[in-house]
Amino acid sequence: MAEQGLEKQEVAGYNSCVGSRKSNMVIALLRSVSLLATLVATIVMSLNKETKTFVVATIGTNSIKATLTAKFQDNPANIFFVLANGLATLHNMLVLAAMLFGKKIDPKGIRFMAISVLDITNLAILSAGTTGAAFMAQLAKNGNSHAQWNQICDKFESFCSHGGGAILASYIGLALFLILVLISTIKRHHSIQNNTHASV
User: Fold this and answer.
1) pLDDT tens-digit profile of 107-163?
2) For a surface tag, which of 44, 121, 173, 199 has the fewest beta carbons within 10 Å of its beta carbon?
């Protein structure tokens, strides 16, 4: 009976170890793709700039022209978007490094609690930055007749197209980030339950 109990514990321990490795691989994959998505969003938006020359008046046969530039720095929501995606990218890079080398620098496993807190914090910041930029993009595309705000996407098509691509990439990164936070939370919950049962 005692030998059977030991065998069951060994099998359970082996299955737990295999399951933990699989979930770690899934989390690492999700984190890597999320990192790439937020990195693309950061680069595309931070380089988003378009300059155009418009005819603003005509005096006789002479045209008066004005050169205008649309750039992401003109809008605080886009600046926050770049910062939020850059922060999420950096966070995921550091967490992936911690997953690879964490046991050497943190044998007690304190990093897991820190990663959980930072995951949720970065998820909230990324969500706010992406939503704010999406709202401003909608305003740039359609304007607001009630507030007398004119659309600009009919004049700066390339700027709006690149901005829309950056926002899409950020939403992909945000969705993957949310999924990996959920998986990490479920994994941690199972780990706590297993430790509790083992101690009993």
Assistant:
1) 566 667 788 888 999 999 999 999 999 999 898 888 877 777 778 888 888 888 999
2) 199
Q: pTM here? A: 0.78
Q: Using H for helix, E for strand and C for coil, what is the string for 165-198?
A: HHHHHHHHHHHHHHHHHHHHHHHHHHHHHHHHHH
Q: How many CB atoms lie within 10 A of CB 6?
A: 10
Report percent pLDDT > 90 for the chain: 35
CA 56 remoteness from chain centre: 41
CA 161-163-169 angle, 5° bins: 105
- Print burial letters for 101-117: b (CB count within 10 Å at least 16), e (below 16): ebeeeeeeeebeeebee
| Closest to 173 measured CA to CA, from 132, 118, 130, 138 | 130
